[in-house]
Design a protein that fits this description.
three-stranded antiparallel sheet; 11 strands; eight-stranded parallel barrel
Length: about 260
């Protein structure tokens, strides 16, 4: 995966088993595929499929129906686009995400809490890097792990330093990249936090995972290797709506212009 990478979000509609699910499943798959195709056409380097519609989320292990449904969605998206496809199983089922990725030929997963622990609206979530690293070695060592640092919608325990957590993610949890986000969905990451992490792990791939839009992407990409964007490229800037082709194209154009200026 290249530096300064643009990853577009495919937010799956509520899947079977979730309280907001409405049949048919085919409509969920169709929407995800349409969003992925629009993102690829706009120039995004990769897409990340996430079960965003399944709130409220399980803290870690999701039911089998969620794994099966996500596998169906990821398989369809993978067949529809040529760019790399990633998987994130909310809230923190990294084992399911990796299993889906390995079975569906996805290239990477996002893990909200890979190591240490965070206080979340699902309660305390503890990372399972040991299990994940061993499963990855067994299933597909080529699947990359992008790990959130102080993930959004969560609070770190007292005394946990961001620099120490960053180095632990890289050296002890074996993350291939680190993601920084704002406090919640669509909120920007703190610039001081970005600078702290960049100093702590200067050679580790660093991405911003929320709050970036066409107006801010140029400044953000001065300090990080890529961004993950969802809200800003949706119709009317609403995370629950489909991808807006015009917004998606404007975002990519702004990001690519910034790369040209930097070079």
């Amino acid at each position: 995966m290249a530096s300064r990478q643009l990853i577009g979000m495919v937010h799956a509609l509520p899947l079977p088993g979730s309280p907001s699910h409405r049949p048919p499943v085919g409509a969920i798959v169709e929407r995800a595929v349409e969003d992925a195709i629009l993102l690829e056409a706009a120039g995004f380097d990769a897409v990340l499929v996430e079960n965003f519609g399944d709130a409220p989320f399980f803290a870690d292990r999701v039911p089998p129906v969620t794994v099966a449904s996500m596998a169906r969605v990821v398989t369809a998206v993978r067949a529809a686009v040529d760019v790399p496809v990633g998987v994130n199983v909310l809230r923190n089922d990294a084992i399911a995400g990796l299993s889906i990725a390995a079975a569906c030929d996805a290239r990477f997963i996002r893990v909200n809490v890979l190591s240490s622990m965070m206080y979340t609206d699902q309660g305390p979530i503890v990372g399972q890097a040991a299990r994940l690293s061993r499963l990855r070695a067994a299933l597909d060592p080529e699947v990359e792990v992008l790990a959130d640092l102080f993930v959004k919608h969560a609070t770190p325990p007292p005394g946990l330093r961001i620099e120490d957590t960053a180095t632990d993610l890289r050296d002890r949890a074996m993350a291939d990249g680190i993601i920084l986000s704002g406090r919640g969905t669509g909120l920007p990451a703190d610039q001081d936090m970005i600078s702290q992490v960049r100093r702590a792990v200067p050679d580790t791939r660093l991405l911003v995972g929320s709050g970036v839009d066409a107006e801010s992407v140029a400044s953000v990409l001065r300090f990080v290797d890529g961004v993950i964007v969802g809200t800003a490229i949706k119709e009317q800037g609403d995370v629950l709506r489909p991808v807006d082709p015009a917004r998606a194209q404007a975002f990519v154009q702004a990001a690519r212009c910034s790369e040209g200026q930097a070079s």
